[in-house]
């Protein structure tokens, strides 16, 4: 059976260590993004509220915990969106050892296109779908 040209046979423990280091890098970047985005989450909620909700509807917060959970949820969602390119790149580095050269050549153009398409989908959802749903639910 022919293997990948630069294929390395490593013990399972080595693969698990490599996976652990990849996950550590991803989590460090994710938590850094969370700490950088959280101070602006209140302003981001106001911007989203002004863009998507009709003017005559007021925001009502029943408890301080509800406001904090909303801010944390928005922060986590934005941090995950920001971290997606790093996740894709780190997963490619982890899988690169086991891929054939043809598969590597295919993987590299797919990554930017998939990221662009996910941003286009998120934009369509934010600017078209969510306002329609909120207008239907509020009115």
Walk me through this protein's architecture.
With 139 residues, this protein is an all-alpha fold. The chain is built from 4 helices and no strands. It has helices at 12-37, 41-52, 64-95, 101-138. The radius of gyration is 21 Å and the shape is elongated. It starts with 11 loop residues before the first helix and ends with a helix. The model has no long low-confidence stretch (mean pLDDT 86).
Mean pLDDT comes to 86
N- to C-terminal distance = 65 Å
Structural class by sheet pairing and helices:
mainly alpha
Query: Uncertain segments of ≥5 residues (pLDDT<50)?
Result: none
Rounded radius of gyration (Å): 21 Å
The biggest sheet amounts to: none
How would you describe the shape? elongated
Helical content stands at over 70%
How many individual β-strands? 0
- Which range does the strand content fall in? under 5%
Order of helices and strands: HHHH
The number of helical segments is: 4
Brief descriptors of the model:
single chain; 139 residues; mainly alpha; elongated
Entry summary:
The protein has helices at residues 12-37, 41-52, 64-95, 101-138. The model has no long low-confidence stretch (mean pLDDT 86).
What does the secondary structure layout of this molecule look like, with pairings?
Blueprint: H1 12-37, H2 41-52, H3 64-95, H4 101-138
